[in-house]
Amino acid sequence: MNLEQLRSFVAVAQIGNFTRAAERLRLAQPSLSRQIAVLEQDLGAELFHRARTGTTLTTAGETLLPLARRMMADAESVRREIDELAGLRRGRVRLGATPTLCISLVAEVLSAFHAAHPAIELHISEHGSRHLLEELAGGQLDLALITTSDGAAGERFAVAPLLVEELVVISSSAAPPVARADSIRLAELADLPQVVFASSYDLRRTTDAAFQAAGLTPKAVIDGAEMDAVIRFVERGIGVAIVPAMVVVERPGLRSVRLVEPTLTRTISIARVAGMAPTAAVGVMQRTIARTAAALADRRSSTMQVATPAGAMRP
Predict the structure, then answer these.
(1) DSSP-derived secondary structure for 246-257
(2) How many other CB atoms sit within 10 Å of the CB of residue 291?
């Protein structure tokens, strides 16, 4: 039994005539008759009552028909899946991410994706969440990793939370600890020299709002730095900084403590344009991001409980 035989059987069953079924399948009638005869021989049962007025199914044929349709549907599904995988031999993915994610999550994602699909062309855009959503809406990106809430993204986008991450305070591992315990209060942090991010960073707006709400003024020793510079300045012992927990992973030059009273968090989400089906490559990238985010959260939380996969959140 093969797919060509099943396709011929279904066509004759639907049309009730060998000649017209052969025309639909673009086969010579003798070839179609031969396929049906071989199928009946393999099954050991006649499938059709043949008469001058037409062709009808036997009991065996009626039993086979739904099974044959199901097998043909399964074969078509497999063919579509294989075609999509074949599509990963070429193509592109345009991914946007915030600067803090580019040096942590995105680096891990692109490494894993490129190793599995080296022929896919990758484009990266590094901006704040609002700018990334503008690029997404303008068709310049396929996916965007953002740190804004679902509501802020609006109805134009499909937004899926990946994980919730605490912000931590980092200092140089070569310098004395900034706190006696494994945490530091915001009021204590305000008295320490800080390396502060540029105002375009989502993270800067979050921390500024926290200090303002507490009636505190941070002591900035360097103001307006980009992520790479912030990390280098802190490693050199110039000051401390508030960063997402994932930034500290595998950075021996940094020491981190939790920030409390208040605890600050951010939700990392993946966004794409709503109502638009992703290409095969973009779909694989989206799944790679989700897996990598969960793995990074597990790695970080094994040493400090500051990152939680979004699916594990409790109401």
Answers:
(1) GGGTT-TTEEEE
(2) 13
